[in-house]
Amino acid sequence: MTAKPPLDILLCAPRGFCAGVVRAIDAVEKALALHGAPVFVRHEIVHNKYVVESLKRKGAVFVAELSEVPDASRPVIFSAHGVPKSVPAQAQARNLFHIDATCPLVTKVHREAEVHHKRGRHILLVGHAGHPEVIGTMGQLPDGAITLIETLDDVAKLTPPEGKELAYVTQTTLSVDDTREIVQALQARFPALIAPHKEDICYATTNRQEAVKRVAPLVDGLIVVGSPNSSNSQRLREVAERAGCPVSRLVLRTNEIDWSLFGDIRRLGITAGASAPEVLVEEIIEAFAERYEVTVETVSTADESVFFPLPRELREPTPTAAE
Questions:
Q1: 179 near 173, Cβ under 8 Å?
Q2: How many domains does the chain have?
Q3: Whole-prediction pTM value?
Q4: Are residues 207 and 296 in the same domain?
Q5: In this structure, are 142 and 187 located in the same domain?
Q6: CATH number of the domain that 140 lies in?
Q7: Can you give the residue range of the structural domain that contains 278?
Q8: 229 and 165 together in one domain
Q9: Closest Cα partner for 79 from 42, 48, 110?
Q10: How many Å is the maximal CA-CA distance in the chain?
């Protein structure tokens, strides 16, 4: 029997689930435990096919729009990415029992945008068109109140409304470096531009990108475990590429690994997007262990202890002193 070649795996930490994703998945599972199946979920609760399929098996029904919810007595959960204001308004009009699982860090961006609008400012949103988070943020305010900025080209072409102060907010799952470039270009054009009090890109996105930057130059290839529609997972792959990793790929399951790309490597980096469960990381490591003599080392750049409580409607009542 031929001896397997050696392979060092450098496992990025932090990786995988963030506090907002844990809260959103827990919200669906808690709603199922409290109310039974079906529980309806508007859009994918998080951008991960494996997570969505496992929740479907437990009784969650995913719908694109509230009009697809046939039974007004069943709970409806809004995804972690946030929704336009029109969505809870529709839910109220139909008397739906709705639970908002929007990540609190996305809600923070919504509140910032609302405050700027109340103060008469025009808002620039740095983000990707069509992403549910961007649709949700733009939907907090009337049409025309927010201008989406995707590229440096958009900055150059921007003609903001006259006589209004400008402020910016950002999508929470962007590339830290790309966003910095765009914000610097905006500040160069509009020196009075008002910035967020605290960075909008979330702690988890930043931490996962920092870990990849540390590992990428040390390995022959890097795998990001995640779904193709996950913004933060796509950004991790791009960060690895920029940091000098010869091969970086986004992979959800082992059947997506292109062994022609990863056949002769000696050092492999692995990370996972914020909506990818650790079980998928373990599955990828096992696939490499079948072909290589694997050693695994964790490279950690930050400790995460962030926790978000469940939406109010799903919390257990606190026992009183008399009970």
A1: no
A2: 3
A3: 0.93
A4: yes
A5: yes
A6: 3.40.1010.20
A7: 6-17+203-300
A8: no
A9: 42
A10: 77
- Among all residues, which ones are annotated catalytic? 133
Task: Count the alpha carbons within 13 Å of 5 in the hemisphere toward its beta carbon.
Answer: 9
pLDDT digits (tens, 9 = 90+) for 55-105: 999 999 999 999 999 999 999 999 999 999 999 999 999 999 999 999 999
Sign of CA dihedral 191, 193, 197, 202: negative
CA distance 133 to 129: 9
CATH number at 77 reads 3.40.50.11270
- Phi first, then psi: give them for residue 260, nearest 5 degrees: -70, -25
CA–CA separation, 52 and 41 (whole Å): 10
306 domain-assigned: no
Nearest to 312, CA basis, from 90, 64, 98: 98
Does residue 156 sit in helix, strand or coil? helix
Give the integer Cα–Cα distance in Å for 206 and 259. 30
> Does residue 76 form part of some domain?
yes
CA distances to 58, 212, 277 from 225, rounded to whole Å, are: 23, 12, 9
30-52 per-residue burial string, b: 16 or more CB within 10 A, e: under 16: bbbeebeebbbbbbbbbbbbbbb
CA-closest candidate to residue 147, choices 199, 180, 182: 182
Q: How many CB atoms are closer than 10 A to CB 249?
A: 15
At 317, which amino acid appears? P
**Residues 230 and 182 grouped into a single domain:** no
pLDDT at 3: 86
| Domain assignment of residue 317, yes or no | no
Backbone angles phi, psi at 54, to 5 degrees: -70, -35
Phi, psi of 236 (to 5 degrees): -60, -40
Q: Shortest CA distance to 207 belongs to which of 301, 108, 81, 105?
A: 301
pLDDT at residue 323 in the model: 44
Specify if 13 maps to a domain.
Answer: yes
CA distance 21 to 115: 26
